[in-house]
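sorry for the late reply, my laptop died twice this morning and i had to redo everyting from scratch. anyway the thing you sent over, i finally got around to it. pasting the sequence first so we're on the same page, its 93 residues, then the predicted structure underneath. double check i copied it right bc i was rushing
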Amino acid sequence: MITENMIGEVRRPGRIEVVCGSMFSGKTEELLRRLKRAKFAKQRVEIFKPCIDTRYSETEVVSHDHNAIQSTPVESSQNILLMAGDVDVIGID
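ok and here's the structure:
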């Protein structure tokens, strides 16, 4: 359902899902699973990670099992709204 607010901006309802847990509990693996599933469903997906996180890759989100997905490194969370554009799903590691 798409709605229009009082100043003419088009808004689509959305939701926030949080995957949380202790270290090595599979959080990144679950994020990757959900994002790959969204891509398979032909949804427009954009993935972001902090540019300071270069453990496995500078441009990919990588799980401890070495599963990976291409991402956009960002300096600050403020950049996400500017860079998200017209997408259906936003993933943040």
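The first helix runs from residue 27 to 40.
thats about all i looked at so far, will dig more tmrw
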